[in-house]
Amino acid sequence: MALDLRFDLNLKGLANIAAARFQLLRRIEEADINGDCSCCSCVAKGPFDRFHGGHFVAGRSIAVLFEPDNVWPQCPDCNIARHGNIKMYRAFLVDKIGEKRIVWLESQRHKNQTLSRVCLALKVEDYEKLIDQALKSLGLGPKFQDETIMF
Ligand SMILES: [Zn+2]
Q1: What b/e string do you get for 36-49 counting C-beta neighbours within 10 Å, with b at 16 or more?
Q2: How far is the CA of 99 from the centre of ligand 1 (A)?
Q3: What digits encode the pLDDT tens for the residues 60-85?
Q4: Domain residue ranges of the chain, discontinuous segments joined by +
Q5: CA 83 to centroid of ligand 1, rounded, Å
Q6: How far is the CA of 92 from the centre of ligand 1 (A)?
Q7: Does the pTM of the predicted model rise above 0.85?
Q8: How far is the CA of 148 from the centre of ligand 1 (A)?
């Protein structure tokens, strides 16, 4: 598979795009057939494209940045105004992934990772394909079909 050179970004810029694509994917994966998500903290409902991908363990360089169990749809109020509404987020996770997995996520709080440009570009490419597949399953058109990654 050839990677084409769509992005002329530094490592941080590419990491931000990969994180944004992953968050979008997680919101679409968790959306119902109408494209609506429930907030992982307050159970408010809203369209996946108006929600955020809230990180339970937050931080741009954390080892669990791309861990699905760490990223769930979250309403903007909980994600920003309530600073993640973590107490309610944790209660949600107990039901979703269980206490043992939560403790593992929390143990990753101080573990960082630095991914290479190639790794990040491959993540963007993979996430864009998965986003298109997930959108298709909701009856929505592809978003990234003709785009490829430049690095
Ligand atoms: Zn909320």
Answers
A1: ebbbbbeeeebebe
A2: 21
A3: 778 899 999 999 999 999 999 999 99
A4: 2-146
A5: 10
A6: 11
A7: yes
A8: 34
